[in-house]
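TL;DR need structure tokens for one chain.
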Amino acid sequence: MSVRGELFTTKVILDNRSYFFNVKENRMGDVFLQVVESKSTNGEDFNRRAIVVFADDMKQFFKGLDDSLSFIEKDRKAREKRVAAKKKPVAALPQKQRYIKKNQHDDMPKRTGKVHIVSKKIAD
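>> reply
TL;DR here they are.
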């Protein structure tokens, strides 16, 4: 056993955060996983947070973690499908149909596309 009961350690660095996965053994001989997040606050100081999972509880812990990862993957795929559906070209979308009753607009003048100017003479 090495310093402070560490059996194994690995480090993952992401942007301004570092994660340490430490497998340790306590004085009683119990093996546990310690996950430590170290976050740089202003370039000099670090905030550290840790969780501990004992060997007896690891199976349930990792099952919960696997379930969470599966949900995240399914959700990511669903979001990608929704974004792809929104990016469909406008021409592919069905056109809005208007139904007009027969003879509904017979009394209205027909539009020819030409401009008609009507002037009135002002009486003196």
